[in-house]
Automatic annotation (TrEMBL):
Coiled coil: none annotated. InterPro entries: TMEM106, TMEM106_N. PANTHER family: TRANSMEMBRANE PROTEIN 106B (PTHR28556), TRANSMEMBRANE PROTEIN 106C (PTHR28556:SF5). Residues 1-13 have a biased composition (Low complexity). This is Transmembrane protein 106 N-terminal domain-containing protein.
Length: 64
C-alpha cells in the first residue's frame, strides 16, 4: 500500500516539474521577443514607417 502511494506521488512531482520547465521556456521566448521588438526602428501605432518623432529621428532611441 505504501509503495503504490509513493509511485503516484513521484509521478505527480515529475508532472509538476515538467510544467515548471515548460513555463521557463515561455519566459525565455517572451524575453527574446521583447529584445527583438526593441531592435525595430520607430514606427507609429498607425503602422506607418515615416519618421514623425523629432527627438529620435526614427531610430527609436532618445539621445542623451
Amino acid at each position: 500500500m505504501g509503495s503504490a502511494l509513493s509511485l503516484s506521488t513521484n509521478s505527480a512531482a515529475s508532472r509538476r516539474r515538467r510544467k515548471d520547465d515548460d513555463g521557463d521556456d515561455d519566459l525565455l521566448d517572451s524575453r527574446d521577443r521583447n529584445e527583438d521588438i526593441a531592435k525595430f526602428p520607430y514606427v507609429e501605432f498607425t503602422g506607418q514607417d515615416s519618421i514623425t518623432c523629432p527627438t529620435c529621428q526614427g531610430t527609436g532611441c532618445i539621445p542623451t
